[in-house]
Amino acid sequence: MPTAPSHPYEPDRPADAVQLNHTAVYAHDRLLSAEFIAAILGLEVGAPFGPFLPVDLGNGVTLDYYEKRDEPIQSQHYAFLVPDERFDAVIARLEAVGVPYYADPGQTEPGQVNRLFGGRGAYFADPAGHNMEILTRPYARP
Fold first, then answer.
1. Please, where are the H alpha helices in 42-139?
2. How far is CA 113 from CA 85, 108, 123, 139, 141, in A?
3. Tens digit of each residue's pLDDT (9 = 90 or more) over 94-128
4. Residue 117 class from Cβ within 10 Å (0-12 exposed, 13-18 middle, 19+ buried)?
5. What is residue 104's DSSP assignment?
6. CA distance 21 to 62
């Protein structure tokens, strides 16, 4: 007989059994936003799926862009782990389209990258105002 978790919020299955599959990303123009992030990250926009326009991140997760034209969009934060050898290409794409990038999430250090956790990182805004981040090393967590 299975035992109950010792805490009501404690999972009763292995951590590797849960994975993020997709998330909806609100945008005023789903095509513009999906094409933007795909171009910056060197990815492709998928075929529409109902009201969503997906961008496959390559690890089983999709960003499903959903259009909200008549409502304000609450800025969200999305962080993308990129291989170190692709980081400079992402920065070059941002520079090529004139999108400023910053070393910090508060966007006070323009044109700079950070060196956190032995890697590199940068922040930039997408067309809907979301705070996007690229990093080459995951954050060290306690």
1. 84-96
2. 15, 11, 8, 15, 21
3. 999 999 999 999 999 999 999 999 999 999 999 99
4. middle
5. S
6. 7
Sheet holding 131-135, edge to edge: 77-81, 131-135, 121-125
Q: Which two tokens stand for residue 64?
A: 């499903």
In the structure encoding, which two tokens stand for residue 46, read together?
A: 């998928």
Q: Quote the pTM value.
A: 0.87
Query: What pLDDT band is residue 142 in, cutting at 50, 70 and 90?
Result: confident
**Which of 115, 122, 51, 64 has the alpha carbon at shortest distance from 93?**
122
Residue 117 region, left (φ>0) first, then alpha (ψ -120 to 50), else beta?
A: left
CB 135 within 8 A of CB 83: no
Q: Which residues of 32-58 are buried (b: 16+ CB within 10 A; e: fewer)?
A: ebbbbbbebbebebbeeeeebbbbebe
Task: Give backbone dihedrals phi and psi of 37, rounded to 5 degrees, phi first.
Answer: -65, -35
Given the structure tokens 């059994």, which residue do they identify? 17
Contact 67, 83 (CB under 8 A): no
Amino acid at 95: E
